Amino acid sequence: MEQLMADYGIVGWIIIGGLAGAIAKLIMPGKDPGGCVVTILLGVAGALLAGFLGRQLGWYDADDAGAGFIAAIVGALIILVVYRMIMGVRRPRL
């Protein structure tokens, strides 16, 4: 993780995370809480998830920096789907 952050820097992660999170929210529109900060965190978490899954499936080596931008968007979409499934169950039905 530290090497991964060192490769891009914190500002790079914020920019990439913001773009990936925003694109994921555009692809899957709906009512989600949070603004810019949550969107950035969604994109960063999506990139980390995609990198982790890619390593587990053998797509990336341990030396690779991590997932690419498209994979970050896919990871953010996965997180959005899981979030909506969990929150959909908890919402009271009227």
Which segments are poorly predicted (pLDDT under 50) over 5 or more consecutive residues? Answer: none
Average pLDDT rating: 75
- Beta fraction: under 5%
Query: Over the alpha carbons, how many angstroms does the gyration radius reach?
Result: 14 Å
Shape: globular
The number of distinct structural domains comes to: 1
**H/E element string?**
HHH
Q: How many helices does DSSP assign?
A: 3
Helix content: over 70%
Instruction: Tell me about the largest β-sheet.
Output: none
Structural class: mainly alpha
Terminal CA distance: 44 Å
Number of strands: 0
How would you describe the overall organization of this protein?
With 94 residues, this protein is mainly α. The protein has helices at 2-27, 36-56, 69-90. Helix 1 (2-27) crosses helix 2, helix 1 (2-27) packs across helix 3 (69-90) and helix 2 packs across helix 3. The model has no long low-confidence stretch (mean pLDDT 75).
Main features:
mainly alpha; single chain; 0% strand; globular; 94 residues
Compile the SSE list and pairings:
Blueprint: H1 2-27, H2 36-56, H3 69-90
In short:
By secondary structure, the protein is mostly helical. It has helices spanning 2-27, 36-56, 69-90. The protein is globular and about 40 Å long.
